[in-house]
Amino acid sequence: MIDQNKNEVEFNEEMLREWLENDEIQMFREHFLLLHPYDQAQFYEKVDPDIRQIMYHFLSPLEMAVIFREIEAEDEDSQQFLKEMDPSYVASMLEEMYTDDAVDILNELDNKDRESYLEMMDSDTVEEINELLAYAEYTAGAIMTTEYVSVLESSTVRSAMAVLRREAPDAETIYYLFVVDDKHRLTGVLSLRDLIIADEDELIQHVMSDRVVSVELTADQEEVAIIMKDYNFLALPVVNENQVLQGIITVDDIIDVIDEEASDDYSKLAGISDMDEINDSAFKSIKNRLPWLIVLLFLGMFTANLMSRFEDTLEQVALLALFIPLISGTSGNSGTQALAVAVRGIATGEVGETSKVKLLFREMMTGLMMGLICAVVVTGIVYVWKDNLIIGLLVGSALSCSILVATLAGSFIPLLMHKMGVDPAVASGPFITTLNDVTSLLIYFSLATTFLKYIV
Can you give the pTM of this predicted structure? Predict the structure, then answer.
């Protein structure tokens, strides 16, 4: 069944290309517009620029706006697509998009291109777009849309239905109606289901829910994502400091935020300033990765300098060098595990002010018990392998202490960064690993030097 659907898609793509190349506009439109917008966007992105030029003639700005909703505004290809189009066509397409989607695209352009498109657009639309462009990036105001349905609390269900019929075609979602007073302050929310089943002569303030959850314009988008996840909302109202309704954030925008934040955290955990795309050039990949590598290189040099200070110990007991990778690697892995747990807890909101001490205590006990278990195992292995109980106890003790310290560092450092207002994901895996290399080697060689007379 899957293969059959795949063949149908491939057949459709081939026929769509043929109709475009042969200027068969009627056949192309008849079949292309039946496709899901995602499939339309996939076809649009695959074809060559000359084929896309034909599509611009075959499709209206409104139909192209539907396609562009499925294309990531941050992609470099998106900007290239805009350059292929006639500027007036782009302006018309942006006018047909929901305001928040148009803002996403405009935000990726330089000031000159942005202003040129805005000059060709309707003044009312430009005013709405400029309002959203003025909000700080990654805030609720920057990702909200102004296309929503609101009704007065003093109106009847009958009049609210009339408002809904009139405004629904332009609204991004109609599953919620937001209730306001005569000063447009948010006072409640009404689901579409509750509106339909209510008596037509009933006042809205009697059927609405006044337990409405909202966010302010300056709220961080991560905070908004957590609220929508916790409450399972399809839309969330955005208000100013006076509780005046400014817009709404829909679930599709939050999915993009979650994807963006996850990618950002993952890149930082990997020690990359910005996650590489498959089509990125080698130069851009170097730009993203090299800064962290330089920082880690200097930390590595510090580790090498630390080892040089214990040359005498290594010269007297060369056997100690065998276990350096074991101790540094195991402690690094333990620290990275604790880091992942802490960063995830902070990102999802599970770790609050009251639970930070609980998390640190749990990680301390976890590191202590894991360290003791690993110490017993390693001591036994070294004793059997090298027939030297003292070396076994030394390696086991150093490993136990290193795991405890690494686990505490892996959980404490991101919590400290979060307290200081710094993204905890900056405490990346490579950074924690390198830091733990330094502490584990310091512990190992300090113990070895202290008990050298029992080893030699």
Answer: 0.62
